[in-house]
Amino acid sequence: MSSDGNPRQTAFEELVLDGLTRTFGSYTAVDGLNATIRGGEFVALLGPSGCGKSTVLNLLAGLLEPTSGSIWLDDERVDIVQSEKRDFGMVFQNYALFPHLTVADNVGFGLAVRKVAKPERRRRVREALELVQLVDQADKRPAQLSGGQQQRVAIARAVVTEPRLVLMDEPLSNLDAKLRLDMRTEIRLLHQKLGLTTVYVTHDQQEALSLADRLIVLLGGVVQQIGTPQEIYQHPQSPYVAAFVGYRNRLPLTVADTRSDTTRVRGGDVELLAAGAELPQHGEVVAMMRAEDLTVTSADSPRGPNRISMTVRVVEYQGNHYAVEGRTASGSILHAHSTFPVRPGEDVTVAVDPERLRLYAAPDGTDDIDDQVALAAEGQRI
Ligand code: ATP
Fold this sequence. Notes:
Layout: E1 14-24, E2 27-38, E3 42-46, H1 53-61, E4 68-73, E5 76-77, E6 88-91, H2 103-113, H3 118-131, H4 147-159, E7 165-169, H5 177-194, E8 198-202, H6 205-211, E9 214-219, E10 222-227, H7 229-234, H8 239-244, E11 249-258, E12 262-267, E13 270-275, E14 284-289, E15 294-297, E16 307-317, E17 322-327, E18 333-338, E19 347-352, E20 358-361, H9 369-377
Parallel strand pairs: 3-8, 3-9, 6-7, 7-8
Antiparallel strand pairs: 1-2, 1-4, 4-5, 9-10, 11-12, 11-14, 12-13, 14-20, 15-19, 16-17, 16-19, 17-18
The chain binds adenosine-5'-triphosphate (ATP).
Adenosine-5'-triphosphate is lined by residues 24, 27, 29, 47, 49-55, 203, 379.
């Protein structure tokens, strides 16, 4: 869709990654990746360091060849097309600008290579510089610009040719925190304006959730989940995805009983009710919650279900709430939010909405999801 709400013409309807696999010696960096990206979509490839994100991007860009599998734009097979003939625009972490060329010439480079006539080139470069608000810097060299400005030049250069696909590999990771936020908004705005199909690599879940129409979560070279930011945030399909997208709290519990859309779980002095679809029906489970969904209740609030008692260990003031770390009687560490101050050593009760509690069958072998996520990131299978 364009910003005026009308469907936009895109260069293709579907980009299909079909069983995409890449090995380096005996090591499999990307393992049988299947995904379909629609024309005009902004898709983030999200995962921890080493999970294979850049390898996927480099396969798309044609900088690497797949060991097996293929890449299709509608019915055109592109993994066998030379990189420079794919008509893709690229933005890298390190900007990769030509230092001896001016900003305008950097942006116009791809148009010059395509032998676009000078007046047309000048017009399109100006338009691209307007988009990234750098018209005033057109005659400077990259070294005379800030990091954020350099990255905007790189983005203008990638989109000026209106490529069929824009590929971005951690483009904001060299910028400071504030600039990263500003640039995030600019990239989103640019996508709204131009509607270019974009694949964006990041290990930052906030960045992926806020930028993308859909996310592909990778761990250990394997797709764990594909979904909208809302689906990934609210309904991570596995404990690994949950852990990666910020479900910090984990409690090992056992299913006590189930109804049509609720499951009661127990362990020690904790008893919790989870609501929603596809809940485990029996056996050992791991219950997972975000810190912001686990709230400290005040002494005068009415007693209700889904309470857990804990002793406060650490309190951090965070502006609109206090981040509270506590320990349950059975020794589990929990992270919660409180709207009022509490003190280390204090006994408090925290509560979670049954809709915000995720239950997963306990993984085999170990109950430490973090270890498993780390192993997955190192390429080991989970
Ligand atoms: P990061 O965020 O740290 O860049 P990533 O998710 O992009 O990580 P990749 O760069 O795709 O990960 O690497 C995936 C795995 O493949 C890593 O374990 C890496 O060491 C390995 N790998 C990548 N390129 C090569 C190569 N040219 N030769 C050997 N191994 C490689």
